[in-house]
Amino acid sequence: MTPRITGTGRTAGRDAAGMSVRRATARDAKRLTGLIRSSSAYEGHYAPMIAGYRVGPDYIETHRVFLAAAPDGRLLGFYALLLAPPELDLMFVADAAQGLGVGRRLINHMKEEARAAGVHSVRVVSHPPAEGFYLGVGAERVGTVTANPPAVLWDRPELVIRVSPDDDAPARTVEHATHTGS
C-alpha cells in the first residue's frame, strides 16, 4: 500500500520510522542524481542550478555520502559531507518524503560523522528556500555567498552547524565568497 500524500508534501500518519541511513556506494550514483534532478525545490528560477547536475561514482568514492532509505529500499534523501574544509556540500530529501523527519535525521547523522572526524562545525551554503530548515535544525546564519553567474544566479545564505556542543568559538562571516557548492 502506498502512503497517502497530502497537498503539503507530507505523508499522512507517517514519520521516518524504519528508515535506515547508510554509506552510499558508486552503484547509487544514478539514484542520487535522479533525486536531485526531480527535486521540486529547484523548479522555475532555480532550475539552472541543477540542469545537467550529476553525482558521479567518483564523487561518492571521494566524499562521505550517506543516503536514507525506506524499509522497502526507496531512496528518501542523501547528504554529502566534505571534510577539508568541513562543508555540507549536498543535501536532498525526496519530495514525497518532505516533512517526515528525513532531513533532520540526515543532519543528525552528518553531525555524528563530522564529530567522529574531529570536526567542530560544518559550513552550509544553502539553497535560499532551504534556509528555514537549516535554522530549524540549529544552524546559525553567518553571512551571504554572492551570486556567481552563470553557475549560480542568486545570493545564498551561508550558515554554520555546530557539531560539538562545547564549541563556543565565534562563527566566521563571508560577505563576498564565490563558492558554488550546495
How would you sum up this structure, described in words?
The N and C termini lie far apart (34 Å). A hairpin with a 5-residue loop joins strand 2 and strand 3 (75-83). The protein has a 7-stranded mixed sheet with strand order 1-2-3-4-5-7-6, sandwiched between helices. It is globular and about 40 Å long. 22% of the residues lie in helices and 25% in strands. The protein is of the alpha+beta class and 182 residues long. It has 5 helices and 7 strands; from the N terminus they run E-H-H-H-E-E-E-H-E-H-E-E. The protein has helices at residues 29-37, 47-50, 57-62, 102-116, 131-136; strands at 20-23, 64-69, 75-83, 86-93, 121-125, 140-145, 156-162.
Q: How would you describe the shape? A: globular
Structural class determined from secondary elements: alpha+beta
Name the beta content range: 15-25%
Roughly how many Å apart are the termini?
Answer: 34 Å
Low-confidence stretches: 1-14, 167-182
Biggest pleated-sheet summary: 7 strands, mixed
- The ordered H/E elements are EHHHEEEHEHEE
Strand order of the largest sheet: 1-2-3-4-5-7-6
What's the topology here?
Layout: E1 20-23, H1 29-37, H2 47-50, H3 57-62, E2 64-69, E3 75-83, E4 86-93, H4 102-116, E5 121-125, H5 131-136, E6 140-145, E7 156-162
Parallel strand pairs: 4-5
Antiparallel strand pairs: 1-2, 2-3, 3-4, 5-7, 6-7
Keywords:
182 residues; alpha+beta; seven-stranded mixed beta sheet; 5 helices; 22% helix; globular; disordered C terminus
Provide a brief overview of the structure:
This protein is α+β, with helices and mostly antiparallel strands and 182 residues long. 22% of the residues lie in helices and 25% in strands. A seven-stranded mixed sheet has the order 1-2-3-4-5-7-6, with helices on both faces.
